[in-house]
Amino acid sequence: MTKLALTLSINGQRHEVLTEPHRTLLDVLRTDLGLTGTKENCLEAECGVCTALVDGRSLNACILLAAQCQGREVLTIEGVGRDGQLHPLQRAFIEHGAVQCGYCIPAMILSAKAYLDEHPTPTEGQVREALAGNLCRCTGYQKIVDAVLAAARKLAD
Amino acid sequence: MSFEYHEPTSVAEAIDLGARFGADGCFLAGGTDLIIHMRRGKLHPRHVVSLHRVPGLDGIDANGSVAVGALVTHRALERHVAFHGRLRALVEGAEVVGGHQVRNVGTVGGNIVNASPAADVTPVLLALDAAVTCAGPEGERTLPLDGFLVGPGQTALRPGELLTSIRFSALSERSATAFLKAGRRRAMEIAVVCVAVRLTLDAAGERCTEARIALGAVAPTTRRARGAEQALVGQAPTQKALREVGRLAAAESEPISDVRASARYRTLLVETLVTRALTRCLARIRDTAS
To answer: Looking at this predicted complex, what is its ipTM?
Structure first.
C-alpha cells in the first residue's frame, strides 16, 4: 500500500501527514494530530458527531478521505474560539444549559456555525432543520435550539 | 478498507484509469454511500479513483434544456434558481436527502449510480424523462435513465465507465412538477415511499396532455407507473380522476415489507401520495397561469 504525503490546513495551521489512502479526516484528526474534539461514533454519516467544516461547509469527517481535504481549509471545534475566547455559540450553549453528556456538542456547534454564517437570522424551525444531521440523546434539543437562536441574536448585534 | 488512491485531473484521465482497473476500480464522488459500503465490506475495490479534482463535472446549465453535471451536490441542486419554478420537484427531492452534512457532499451522479430503490432525486429525474451520459474507453453514450436502473445497486454502467451528466428538457408552460416523501421522521430518513410527478395541461387548462409518475421504495428500482400515467392523458384533472390515477399507481407498485413499513402500508401511501402530488401540480400550474 502506497502511503500518501498530505499537506492539510486545519484551523489555519499546516500539517504534514503521511498516511494510508483509506484513512479518513476523522482518523487523521483524532489519531495523528490529537485533535479529539471531533468525535467518533456511528461511522456511517448518521449521527453527525464527527462534523467538521471544510471550506465553510459542514460534513461528516467519518466518510471523507483525508486525501480529499488537501488544498481545502478544515475547521474543527478546536479552531472555533479565537485568542482564548469562546465563540458566541459556545458561550450560549453554556448559558442555556444546552450541554449534558457533551459528546454531540462540538459537532452541534460546528453545524450551527455553518448555518449561521449563511443565515444570520434564522427561525426556530430553520435552526431545527439545520441541526437535523446531528443527533443528541440527552437534551431533547430544546435548549440547544434556544442556545443557537440566542447566539444568532448576539452575533447579529 | 485498503486500496490504492488516484486523483485524475481530467475526464479523459479518469476514463483511462477506469478502463485500466475495470471491475477492480471504483469512482469516488461524494463518498456518502461508497465509503460506507467499503467499510461494511460490501465493496472492496483495489483502486479508488476520486473525481473531486476533475473539472467540468459540477456545473448546472439551465439555458434551454437542462444539463446537470454528475458531481453537482444535492446542496447545489436545492439552491439553483432555475429549479425554483416548474422544476421545483428537484429541490423538493434534494432537500430531504440526509442532513446538511450529506447534502453538502453527496452528488446527483452518485445518487443515480448507487441505484437505491429508495433514492429521492432519481424519481424526480425519471419524471423529467432524464437521460444520462456515460463516458468510457469506447466513447460517450447517452441513454434514458428509465432502463439505466437495473436493480438494487445495479445500473447499466459498464465497468470503468463514468457517468458524466444528466440531461432533460425544460418544461413547457402549463406544466409543473411535485415531489412527496413519507418517512417515519421528517429528516435523516430513507423514504418509506416517495413519489415524483410531472403534469402538463392543454392550452385551455382543461385536460391533461402528458403525465409522469415515478415511485421510490416500492420496487427493486425507482420506476415509473406507466399505466397510471397513460390513464391520465386526455382526461380532465378532476379530484375523482386524480384519485383513480392514485389507485392505478398503487396497483402497479410491488413493495416489500421490511423494518420500515409493511407492503400494504406502502401501497396505501402510493395511492395517497400520487393523488396528493398531482393535486399539488395542478395548483402550481394554475398559480403560474393566473
So the answer is: 0.96
